[in-house]
Amino acid sequence: MDEEEGKNELQPVKTNQSIADSFSVPREITFVIITCMSQFITQANVGICLSPLDIVGASFGLSNGPELAWFLAGYSLTVGTFILVFGRCGDLFGYRRMFVIGFLWLSLWSLVAGLSVYSNHILFIFARVLQGLGPAMLLPNGLAILGATYAPGRKKDMIFALFGATAPNGAIVGAVFAAIFSEFAWWPWTYWSMAIVSIVCAGIGYLVIEPIRHSKPTDNAFVSLDIPGAFTGITGLVLVNIAWNQAPAVTWAEPYVIVLLILGALFLAAFFVVEFKYAKHPLIPFHAFSADVSFVLACVATGWGCFGTWIFYSWRFLLDTRGISPLLASAQFSPPCVSGLVASCVTGLLMSRIRPAWIMCMSLTAFTLGTVLITIAPVHQTYWALTFVSLVIIPWGMDMSFPAATLMLSNAVKREHQGLAASLVTTVVNYSISLSLGFAGTVESQIVHGDSPEERLRGYRSALYFAIGLGGLGLCISVLYTARSYMKSPRSAPSSSSSSSSSSKTAA
């Protein structure tokens, strides 16, 4: 990763010739596995937080739901807010370089998260927040590496489907190992193990991934990275998110919460001014976006906001209300592994046969219906009734929405902005998960009066009702978008697989 590497960097695939054609079979298998690990590890860090949530909270003397929500919200916050910036860094400085740095960074802060057991919950949350910067480097650059290494075709489509299918598997594997360490050993080993795995992935990634750069090196990184836009945008998003996620824990009566929210809004306003008037290389080229982009991102935000609330409060329902162990809860959360894989394959087949807008409608239906089922599930009902069905349905929302949204954005922007699509969708996905927990926590805090099991259940269900509202809103938006797509081009054929392949190249 020195200057000589920069001179020898390969260019992304633009024809049917594939960089992967030069790989031996063992190297290509290792390459695909290690690149997909970026998605797997990202979601595993969600799972390792959820299953031992009460055990970790108890070690810090915490039992308050809104405070525990920070363990997940802090991580998703930084994953969502930094993806676009680190995607741009990959374009400028090399995808492999950013990919390896992402794993090394994740390893460092996983180590700190485990060591926080000797300190307090503030250090743990701080470490979780900084952990999120690692996946923010891994996701866009992992997608970019795959997109640049493989030429459009069926192999590329299948590899991207595999990349998406690792998400639910990563979350479940993370939850299982976290439960095992927490119940039978010591919970910090969950994070120390993550540090070891990340170090190994960084080393293997450096060996098997070709150094690829999308853009030519520049002497003026300040201009190319759009530092003013990145600073104002990230600061605004972080402050708004902190305000919403902190308010349920300390109430909106705290003056500093209101101050943070106002400052966040001002920074976001400054971001739009910088992007529209002053940035030569804007982080988000709003001028290139059509109205379709707003529809797509609104669907993604509401759907994944619904999912973020569903996953946190479903775990609370199983662990706290039903009182099952973290390991059993992890086992009960295993259906998404199979269901998500099936959903990814079906989505890959549907993308070339029907309009992506219809797939988005199906996705929002799955998000909403899955949340309804867990919300109305009786406490003492068998797992195999509503809970199991909810866990089977929800992955269809996850694994249908991301590829559909990426393709829809790809079709809505000009060719020179294709690389923005996947990064923008990933940003909205992760930020929506984090922000929705703040919204849901506010709803919960207004409903709950006391700490009895009945009151806590009322709080969980009130938060899930909010999630149903988000999913329903997204479903309405997706229906409107579908109708609009028919009004614009009533006879247009569904996107071809080649279009899907082209969109698969989007990253960073």
From TrEMBL:
It is found in: Membrane. Residues 489-508 are annotated as: Disordered. Residues 31-486 form the Major facilitator superfamily (MFS) profile domain. The chain crosses the membrane at residues 68-86, 98-119, 125-146, 158-180, 186-209, 221-244, 256-274, 286-313, 333-350, 357-377, 383-409, 421-443, 463-483. CDD domains: MFS_Amf1_MDR_like. It comes from the Eukaryota. It is a multi-pass membrane protein. GO terms for cellular component: membrane. Keywords: Membrane, Transmembrane, Transmembrane helix. This is Major facilitator superfamily (MFS) profile domain-containing protein. Its main location: membrane. GO terms for molecular function: transmembrane transporter activity.
